[in-house]
Amino acid sequence: MQSPLEILQEKFGYSDFKYDQETVIQSVLNGKDVFVMMPTGGGKSLCYQIPALATEGLTVVVSPLIALMKDQVDALRLNGIEADFLNSTLIPKMQHHVMAKLRAHKTKLLYIAPERLFSSTRNDTGTEVPFMDFLKEVNVSLFAIDEAHCISQWGHDFRPGYLKLSQLKQHFQNIPVIALTASADVQTREDILQKLQLTDPKIFISSFNRENIHYYVEPKRNSYHRLIEFIRQHEDESGIVYVLSRKSAESLAADLEGEGFSAKPYHAGLDKNIRDRHQDMFIKDRVKIMVATIAFGMGIDKSNVRFVVHMDLPKNIESYYQETGRAGRDGLKSEALLFYSYADVIKLKRFVEIDDNPEQSAIMMKKLDEIAEFCQRKVCRRKYVLNYFGEEHDGNCASCDICLDKHEKFDGTVIAQKALSAVTRLKENFGKTYVIDFLRGSRSQKIKEWHKSLKTFGAGAGISKNEWHGYIGELIDYGYLLQAGDMYPVLKLTGKSRAVLLGTEKVMLIQSVERETVAESSIQYENDLFKKLKSVRLSLAEKEHVPAYIIFSDATLIDLAAYLPHTLEEMKRISGFGEVKLDKYGELFLKEITGYCQERRLTSQMRMQVAKRRRKSGTGTRGKSVTKLESLKLFKSGKSTQEIAALRALNASTIESHLTHFILTGELEVNELVAQDKIPNIKNALKKHGGLALAPVKQDLGDGFTYGEIRAVVNHLKQEKPD
Description:
six-stranded parallel beta sheet, Arc Repressor Mutant, subunit A, Rossmann fold, alpha/beta, globular
């Protein structure tokens, strides 16, 4: 069997692992149960696909997403991997064919829904047997449970069919189980582990930070016209627009089509054939915009979605994170825009309450309050989301509206005094919503009658609800107020409040005025060539009857258009070109690149100069390059490899891999990563072993040298003598 890294490179065309992939894979290969939380687009599927190829036997992937099963199987088959799925979309003849392949041990990965796992099937004698018993006959080596949050009633997408998965360890005690999810808070994570009854599981929580997604929240005023303006900035790009109701999905899709956009609606009330047709058109780039309720999205593995818009407020942070995470799975810059109005919070409160379950209703209400806080607070959006999932962030992402907007401050002392006075007169016993209604002089029956006679009642009537939510959020951020209590938090004064109430301390509040722009990409590329390559990809996709992104992602095509490879050997360096795809498509794309260079009269020498300059000016556009850039930024700020690893919750070896990459681009020198007196020893060892294989070199050098140091010298030698 090949090593995991060899499989990654040869089958999938990626040069190195990211996040905790390598450690997760090794844990699975060691027979351990594993729980993995990794962001959408972070490569969760490789955590079980690579072990499946590195071991004998069948890997069973449990997924609730019928739509995703076919796409994942198609993608695996294009990489030369035997994979199948069993679900209700297959006609009986095809189901029999899949079962026959399983009996003959010809399938490496089988995708099924949880309900199928606990159904019955016919064995080779025609006798009806439980599907579990059938699996015991076909040498299962691994179970992978995708979208594992579906097992938790505290999660945002509970599926009753998942609850039976706790029986897996009873039937297959010695078979490892890997459970994976992209979004679960601490309570949901604990619930998943308890319900699955995994045996002493290894737990891996990767960074939730989707660095390529830019987050914006705007007031829900003139939102339709703002949406049109936003979509025009994304001409000919794929996007999803989420709305709350089925009626809104249909009417907005029709309006967008009337504006000349390529858009279709999607919701659970549509006829299944229409729904499936719209989804297929979107996946295959025949429709650019899907206007949908939350019924759409889970199982959509489309990598080139450039934007996600929420016209209405999501019910919780998990849903928002997962839905916005459907953008930018290829690692390229993508945008998430949310239109916010407190009226949406009021509307959603009716939907999150669960009959006869006050405990779960309270949790869902708390989650709704947290997404409202996310919209109202003047805190870095990225920091808020990451903190919600228990991850630290310094709060200066330079890619959200809070961090990009240039602010001017105004004297908000009177506003602050009104808010603090209201909290005082209400004896610090009420939450933010009640305090705001009190300040605005609401005639709602919820306002207690004796409160209406208090001096501060109605003192803030001239300020809107949305503005009050923002101001009180700032007062909390600045430490003039705090929220106490977990399920139903109330506003309390702090040690800083008194000076403001006495007028001895001025409070400056924020007013947004102008937003900075963000560069589209860290790399220059030939845009005309990129369009030609997209056309070639689309033709291949139609011929293969698969979505275009399964052939190659936009990131791969951009790298081709940037570095202009002229040989198959050069093309192997482009992320996404494994051996099978290189053999199958390499010559076709080389022909297109060569023809383009001839049209532009770019000689081989000129092309190499262009490629080298681009490597030095940017690190490429792949998702892995985004995480490498963060490591480089921290290293140049004076952080050590160990400090960066601790800050980013990654292995030190992963950080070393990130940094050594920048020796190839010319952004780091080898002596910045390796002590000067070690370099000759490493060079001699490399020369002695007649190549660039790291393992024998490391063994020869001993414990005083790291793989990162050896790789740094290897890249230094490559940089000195480019191919």
